[in-house]
Every structure is written in C-alpha cells, then in structure tokens.
From TrEMBL:
InterPro entries registered for this protein in UniProt: 2Fe-2S-bd (IPR002888), 2Fe-2S-bd_dom_sf (IPR036884), 2Fe-2S_ferredoxin-like_sf (IPR036010), 2Fe-2S_ferredoxin-type (IPR001041), Beta-grasp_dom_sf (IPR012675), Diverse_Oxidoreductases (IPR051452)
Keywords on record: 2Fe-2S, Iron, Iron-sulfur, Metal-binding, Oxidoreductase
UniProt-listed PROSITE patterns: 2FE2S_FER_2
One protein family per Pfam: Fer2
2Fe-2S ferredoxin-type domain: residues covered: 1-77
Protein's name according to its UniProt entry: (2Fe-2S)-binding protein
Species of origin: Amycolatopsis pigmentata
Keyword Oxidoreductase attributed: yes
Presence of keyword Membrane: no
Amino acid sequence: MKVTIEINGQSVSEDVEDRTLLVHFVRENAGLTGTNIGCDTTSCGACTVLLDGESVKSCTVLAAQADGHKVTTVEGMAGPDGELHPLQKAFREQHGLQCGFCTPGMIMASASLLKHNPKPTRDEVRHGLEGNLCRCTGYHNIVNAVIEASGQEVDR
C-alpha cells in the first residue's frame, strides 16, 4: 500500500506492506536511525516518536495508521540551523545518558510530557516517563535533564 507521512517536515511516500510498523518506516524508508528498535512489544520506549505532537511507541503503530499524519523523531528536534533543542541540551548538560540507546525515546517522551505539563515536579517527570526504560543511568540525571529543560532549578 502507498503511505505518505510527513517526517520532520519532509514528506516521505513509499509503497510498503500493510503490516509495516512505523518504527521500520522511519528507519528503513525515511533513513532516520535515531529512533531505536528495542523490544517490539511496547515495553521499553526506545522507539518513541511524536505522532501529531503526541508521544507514541512506534513499534506498536502501523505505518498505514500514520498515513497522512506528521511524525517528529529525535532528528527533527534540533532547529533548522542545527542548534540542539533545549531537551537535547539538557540531556547533555545533566549527563542524562550513558549508552544512549534509550535517549531518543526519552527525549521524545519528555517533549510530550513538557507540552502537557511545562513545569513538572520530579515525581511527575518520573511518572510521565515510566513507560520508557533505561538500564544505565538510574533515572536521576534523566529527571534532572527534564527539570532543566522546563526552566526549573535542578537539585544538585
């Protein structure tokens, strides 16, 4: 079937099998490999993208379901001049990553969280990111990064 998805402001049209997952469309058809494939069961959140501005785990969305919609990946977060998004900067500044595998999904889920709650508490950040797993950081620095990106003071 023919699928057309606007990804990071660019229209991507491809003929795909009807069972093609959005994560595979993004990686294989659009060539954007920042979105990671982790578990394929919606458990880890490494594949999180924004679909029409809302975070979704792209391993559980068919490309056909995203036909005609807008997708933002971690590559689309930076400004047109390449300047990092405040969340990307905060993750770097607060050491909110180690191996980096979960980072794209964490950033995308955090963007959705901050859209709905611009000044979350630490507990609200933890709750908002509970569907995204990190096996390296222990989450403390990830929470700090989201707090910093929200413009709040980070507890040191």
